[in-house]
Amino acid sequence: MDKTELSADDVREAIKMAADFKAHGIRVEVFADSDTIGKKITAASKQRIPYILVVGDKEIASGNVSIRKRGSKDTTTLASKEFMQMVSTKNLEKSLEL
Question: Residue 16: is its pLDDT beyond 50?
Fold first, then answer.
């Protein structure tokens, strides 16, 4: 398996994380196809997705997510639960701020 392919464990963990987000009322989609990370990020950017989360072995082990906001090329890392709380709060407040 080359570095761009997702392992079954990575996909399983991403799906579990997505279920947690959905349980908190956050819309989420898992891109588990064989495209490279760069292509997936480009596709998500074109769809104007507000937050792109990258979850790999390192993030799964630490319980964190790498976050890229729409319109930015910078990434930040937050605990998954902390990010979930932040987005839930923005949703409740109907905030337009990313």
Answer: yes
pTM of the model: 0.79
Backbone φ/ψ region at 71: left (φ over 0), alpha (ψ -120 to 50), beta: left
Instruction: Give strand ranges (E) for the chain.
Output: 51-54, 64-69, 75-79
Residue 53: burial class (beta carbons within 10 Å; 0-12, 13-18, 19+): buried
Burial of 46 per CB tally in 10 Å (0-12, 13-18, 19+)? exposed
Whether residue 7 is predicted with pLDDT greater than 90 in this model: the reply is: no
Assess contact for 55 and 14: CB atoms under 8 A: yes
**Angle 11-17-21 from CA coordinates, rounded to 5°:** 140
Residue among 77, 27, 20, 33 at smallest CA distance from 54: 77
Residues 6+ apart with CB under 8 A from 64: 77, 78, 79, 80
